[in-house]
């Protein structure tokens, strides 16, 4: 999603339709009485920290964008948004909230998919959008330090002028904050090449619930002095501290990028193509994505696009290479594609000849989410598992829904079960478009799917996190002893439980 | 260090020289009375877990190798070594030790440099050498799972037959265990290319002090379900749990490797060469190492090697590329070298034409440690800092020692101050060979050096960890709030403090 689509969604939310409150949609949540209700004294105190322009109070129109997520799936009831400008202000805010037991929701670009960044009840929203300065950049090592509220795409553009790039890329880059990326351990499209944030993030500055500023803003690639505490904050979804600054290792921007599309007959061949790409494309492979023909049909239904290939195939593979030498990369990619065709692994192959062709190929893969969003209803899952199991998951879900009477006949509620995702990461986006949001269908899907994923030792949330929509299912991905230890850490770091309550860890 | 040199060191320790006890060398440590002294009942209980062949008790000859480190710098007084064969045995051992308050030192290949893997007093050694089985390998994703006691080189050889490799490499590979690599967050030679273990390790199985088996043996590249607890164990030096199993992402083994050596006039030019290598060699760069001419002179003193270059230069740069296409890599490397010479950044350049020439070039870089070890005494430091400061550190230490009257005259105690290391990682190995171990010299070096590193926001231990030799200096690298939080985690995870006591965190 680009910035413009995000804005469209926002306008939609405020203009045309009232999003139901999360607590109405997910019944069973009760406001915890241990949290203080805001008083005018509290608001005055916060005003003394951030100033008149640093807060939004009881103005429903202005609060809307902070109370509602971009998909219009979640809506909270916060009366106060704070926009600190400095780490010290964040510290002062949290110290007071902790003393007064005021619940807080940290918020970055608010582009999450699991409701983690919006409140449920009257939690105070602490938005990082006022902290958006680049702090330093070392063009020898490629190490960037920046405020947590910097927008990912802005950082990437800024680095681009210096010949570097951010090591992560995702659809929401035009709106998401780097601090939010860290807090949710964002993966995205470049993970197969540049690895996860646990490897690329070198330092974090975070404010703990009691106001302690934890300065771990290392700009060192190697530092073996004590527990690597910053790692706990990566993927903690704002539950143990507010990330205010980041230090990250950025790679050189590649001078040559190539994109190709393969038509493939079976998922076994998709795997063979992936395996061989790691040998022949090796160091220049920067994306290996797949989508099935069912997903492509949904795309075609909502898009007027010319076909990229003459024929249709059960599976499509999108390959991207990024390297420092155009001729070398072209030679590697062409040899690889020839081998795939000769060996019968690919039935067809197309290499983009220019940027507009690259965009067309990427356009289908990236447009799947939007096309699926145009169906009357869609059940979306972001799961990971051993690569070999990806298509089994799609097939077994189809069987299961058919046996359950929800799929396969003209009057069935389910339209289709489609799969696409990041093959290299074992990450499947399983989507089930349906004629309407139907609790009976949901009961067929869950917990069947989570149990299936659990049996494969997969993850029920590969990239999207837990938030409010996955936290009760954590036991399908993590053992009892792991969850117990997580709860211990949460209570040690946030004894009053003021940070992002009701979410992340199971409450039941 | 290869396995054979390690054995030599071991023989030296047992045969010719009695290593002084650590507690004699580092006075001020006292055995903590809270730990129980072993009784025959305890030993019988342990025997019931691991069997007769799974323990060594009160046999000084057999205990020696577990009580002494390979450098003969540290010696403990343990009377009991346990060699469990299963994770359940490790759990049973720790549960009992925790209940009885028996102190434990986990031990892998015992190749550490800071005394972290040997006991101080009568702690029980739990050696992982009996747990050395590969558990699984997925040749599509490249994900390996294995017991913690597997030797790094054995894993790498095993993977080599399948076209894969371990993402880390270090001198001690012939002896060190993968579990110990994780426990010490080993960096090594390939970090510039494959990143740190925080990125490549996907899962850990660890036993907590109370015997809880923490099963986080994920084989997923993406999993955003809760705090990433495994990260805390990476670099924890055996203080919060014993790692018994690992899951790691392994890259394809490159089919082409090239090695080159540059002669360079200034450290500014070393940085320029590094910067340009990231542009031109980019995705194939797998090592960028430097050593200064002073280090090279020490090497020459102890080695009968033919010179690789005709002339000598103030600095030498070793570049290694690893890729999937020999011709492409050669072209990139040759173009880069020509540009370096044309631009006057390098004064001379040599590319190895075969494996024996590669070995000769690597031989100097890797032989520096051994050569320095042949000096009468040597003060060794492993520090990291912004790349631009690396040579300043060497120069300022020379000045400081000269002003302190310890260097620069024929009768000065210090022979030289030399630098070498991993430029790409900002990692300097600062070595100060001297005519004898002289407390006056040590007092000049420390804490001056740590203060200097601290001012550059560097790390006092880039790769080697803290153990017993660096833990009291932690505050030079980490803030008070960070150390406080580390101590909190330690006390939460190991409330009785049975794991690796007296080490890692400051005791004073």
Automatic annotation (TrEMBL), chains A, B:
The lineage's top-level taxon is Eukaryota
Matching SUPFAM superfamilies: FAD-binding/transporter-associated domain-like, FAD-linked oxidases, C-terminal domain
Pfam families (UniProt xref)? FAD-oxidase_C, FAD_binding_4
Give UniProt keywords alphabetically. FAD, Flavoprotein, Metal-binding, Mitochondrion, Oxidoreductase, Transit peptide, Zinc
Its UniProt entry gives the catalysed reaction(s) as: (R)-lactate + 2 Fe(III)-[cytochrome c] = 2 Fe(II)-[cytochrome c] + pyruvate + 2 H(+); (R)-malate + A = oxaloacetate + AH2
Name the enzyme group at the top EC level. oxidoreductase
Q: Where is the FAD-binding PCMH-type domain?
A: 74-253
Any single Gene Ontology cellular-component annotation: mitochondrion
Question: Per the UniProt entry, what is one GO biological process?
Answer: malate metabolic process
Looking up PROSITE patterns in the UniProt record yields:
FAD_PCMH
Cellular localization per UniProt: Mitochondrion
Q: Known EC number(s)?
A: 1.1.99.39
List, alphabetically, the InterPro entries matched. FAD-bd_oxidored_4_C, FAD-bd_PCMH, FAD-bd_PCMH-like_sf, FAD-bd_PCMH_sub1, FAD-bd_PCMH_sub2, FAD-linked_Oxase-like_C, FAD-oxidored/transferase_4, Oxid_FAD_bind_N
Instruction: Say yes or no: keyword Ligase present.
Output: no
Where does it mainly reside?
mitochondrion
Return one GO MF term. Answer: (R)-2-hydroxyglutarate dehydrogenase activity
Could you say which cofactors this protein requires?
FAD
**Claim: Zinc is one of the keywords in the record:** yes
Q: Which family does it belong to?
A: Belongs to the FAD-binding oxidoreductase/transferase type 4 family.
What does this protein's UniProt record list under function? Catalyzes the oxidation of D-2-hydroxyglutarate (D-2-HG) to alpha-ketoglutarate. Also catalyzes the oxidation of other D-2-hydroxyacids, such as D-malate (D-MAL) and D-lactate (D-LAC). Exhibits high activities towards D-2-HG and D-MAL but a very weak activity towards D-LAC.
Which protein are we looking at?
Answer: D-2-hydroxyglutarate dehydrogenase, mitochondrial
Q: Which organism is it from?
A: Hesseltinella vesiculosa
Its lineage opens with: Eukaryota, Fungi, Fungi incertae sedis, Mucoromycota, Mucoromycotina
